[in-house]
Amino acid sequence: MGLGRRLIAMEQPILAGHELSMWGYVVLTALSRRTVRTQSALATAIGADKTRLIPILDDLQHRGLIHREPDPADRRARLLALTPAGTALHQQIQAAIRIAENDLLAALPESDRHGFLAALRALHT
């Protein structure tokens, strides 16, 4: 199994334990960075179709994890933000994922682990 698939397989039970889909987690992560404010910008940032994103946003809003309100400057646009509950849930999930990632990386010597993570960060940007 490739690393990407292994990471997804590791994250799935964590997300399921919080009754969150991978797309829901992607949305929470994007909103936690505060780099997107509108539904349209969010869809572009995460590579999702705007119309397919709506049910995910509906679910997150219904669960009290995000706020969605009309943009005063453009009533057709919706502004998005995490609620305190959304922030807390995202932090819990991220902490659990970090623990699982550390377990996965424990097979590497610490010096190799730091180099590997540095390389991933460099490739990600």
UniProtKB/TrEMBL annotation:
<feature type="domain" description="HTH marR-type">
    <location>
        <begin position="1"/>
        <end position="125"/>
    </location>
</feature>
<protein>
    <submittedName>
        <fullName>Transcriptional regulator, MarR family protein</fullName>
    </submittedName>
</protein>
<dbReference type="Pfam" id="PF01047">
    <property type="entry name" value="MarR"/>
</dbReference>
<dbReference type="InterPro" id="IPR039422">
    <property type="entry name" value="MarR/SlyA-like"/>
</dbReference>
<dbReference type="InterPro" id="IPR000835">
    <property type="entry name" value="HTH_MarR-typ"/>
</dbReference>
<dbReference type="InterPro" id="IPR036390">
    <property type="entry name" value="WH_DNA-bd_sf"/>
</dbReference>
<dbReference type="InterPro" id="IPR036388">
    <property type="entry name" value="WH-like_DNA-bd_sf"/>
</dbReference>
